[in-house]
Structure formats: structure tokens, C-alpha cells
Hints:
Layout: E1 5-8, H1 10-26, E2 30-31, H2 41-49, E3 55-57, H3 60-68, E4 73-79, H4 85-94, E5 96-101, H5 104-113, E6 118-125, E7 133-134, H6 138-150, E8 154-160, H7 172-193, E9 201-204, H8 207-212, E10 221-222, H9 232-237, E11 247-257, E12 262-266, H10 269-272, E13 277-279, E14 282-284, E15 286-289, E16 299-304, E17 308-312, H11 315-320, E18 326-331, H12 334-340, E19 343-346, E20 351-353
Parallel strand pairs: 1-19, 2-10, 3-4, 4-5, 5-6, 6-7, 6-8, 8-9, 9-10
Antiparallel strand pairs: 1-11, 11-12, 11-18, 12-17, 13-14, 15-16, 15-18, 16-17, 19-20
Amino acid sequence: MTRPTLVLNSQKAKKNIQKMRSICEEHEMDFRPHFKTHQSPQIAEWFWKEGVDKCTCSSLDMAYEFAAHGWKDICVAIPLNVREMQKANLIASQSKLTICVDNLETIIRLAQETYSNMFVQIEIDTGYGRSGIFYKERDLINNILQKVDETEHLTFTGFLSHTGNSYQSLNAKKGKGIFEEARKNMEELKKEYQERYPELILSMGDTPSSTFADKFDGIDEWRPGNFIFYDFMQFALGACAEVEIAVRVKCPVIGIYPKRKEIAIYGGGVHLSKDSIKYKGNTIYGWAHYEHEDIKDGFPIVSLSQEHGIISVSEEFIERVKIGDILDIIPIHSCMTADLNAYYLTEDSRQIPKIRTY
């Protein structure tokens, strides 16, 4: 191995799929995994083999690629980009396409430009503050619903939300509370509109809540993504065990600096992403250790530039590390790290390609 390489343990990933499918079965939720994490048609086939026949994507480009690989029930869980209406119509002519909206103007454009049947979910903001209608804004929700009902090719199917703020807590108890508050607010919406729309669903789901939530009442569909690989953020949250982390970036050591008690690796922001977390009081960008050594014996990446990673290590480690050694780097956020790499190298040295949508 000569350069930073994204390595995937396929057996761990397949076990993670089975685990999440079991959680959904236990709580009687449809499993609609988010494919933005792996972005691989070959990995998507692992879900097929577990009986999963629907998926979530983060863009119409991604949805188009998976539709071309046979996926017939796709949700794009980002507010619709109205400049891509032609692509949305094309996908909807081939697969069941569920689009996400949070704006009346979007629905007006849809009414003017939609000629393929599409299914509509209203995105609800339950506190994350990224996109979606604040769950108390009933007037806006009602105006959107009225316009959807008036539009020939559109069918309202329910409310969608992502509790992404549960990631930010780095505290399982706090994260559990964030999710439970969101779930209650979504369930309240469902009860209010269910008589008018008997078939409406609540679509939620994030990886940490899959582990630390204990109540899923009212949720019909679960959309986690990161769980297939996990990462150091999930480990720090307590959402996974070390043995469940399925990806590493293997990076060569290119510098050793005893006075600073730091080493440099060939592996920077273009390989790992610059996502970070606060861990034990410090900002870190990844976790480094030798393959086959315990995660607790590893060290934090304390800074990243484009090609360099700087790791803070102990005196004992300085004495045994060598230039050219390969270290395993556990990414902070595996979704972003995977996005930066063109393929996965499996434990048996097979390459698994990814789609590239940009």
C-alpha cells in the first residue's frame, strides 16, 4: 500500500446491515437506508439480499444512478432543487420517486412542470435547524398540502424529519432526549393529519438514535445511513462498538518529530475530510492506531491540511514508529470520508467502485 487508501471490512458492514434491519423489524418500521454513506451499487446489492427494496438518496443525481441500477422506490431526502425538474420527471417515469419539500414556491413550480407521477413528503424541522418547516407552522403546512392536493401528478405521503442534532451532543443521554422530543412532535403531526390522509407516514431515522432511543411509537419508516460503516464520532457517542467500525483509511507515516511528540502521515483533508469532534476536551480530526491494536491504544489527529495529517502521540509510540509504517485512521465521519474516495479496498483486496455525481 503506497498512498492513503479507504479500506472496507465487508463482513462487518454486512453484519451492520443485518443489525439495523432487525431493529426496524423489532419496532415494525419500514427500512429505507440512506445510500449517501456508501454510494455504491455493489454495496447496495447487500441490502437487496437482506430483503430491502427501497432506499434514500441525498441528491437527484444519486437517485438517478441507483434507479439505473434497478432501485424502484427512492426517496430524495433534501428539499427539491427546482432547477432539476427535468431529471426529477425522468427518474419518476422509471421508479417510484418521493421528493421532499419545505416551501410553497417549490410546490407551485412542481404544479407547473411535473408530468410524471411523484410522491411528496413535507420535511419538518424538529430542532436541527438545517432545512424543513418548523413543526408548529401549521398554516404553511396546510397551504402546501392544499397545493399538492390540487396538482394532478403529486401525491402527499407524509412527514419526513432528520434529527441530526443528536450527533452534536456527543452524549447518549442528551441525544436520546433530543430524539424523543422530535419523535413526540412528529407523532403529534401525524395524529392531527391522519384523518385527512389515512395512509400518511412518519419517516425519521439517524444512526445514533437507532442505538440509544428506546421508543419509536408513531414512526413508520426508518432512514439511517452511517450505520453501515460507523466511525469515530459514533464510537465516541456510544452508538457502536469498536468491532462494528467497518472502514479505515490506511495512511503511510512520512514524518516523526520527537521534540513535539507528533508524527505526520500522508493523509489530509482530501482523504479524510475535515470533520472534527471535541473528544476529551480537544478538537480531533480522526483516530490513528496500528492494525490489530486496540482502539484505546490509538492517538488523535490534531490537525489536517490538504495532504498532511498531524498525530499527537506518546514518547513510547515515538520510539517504535518507523517512517513508512502504515497506520489505520478511523474517520470522524465516514460518510464524508467515503465521498472523497473513488473506491473501497476490501479485506480480501477487491476494489468496490463508487458512483461519482460531481
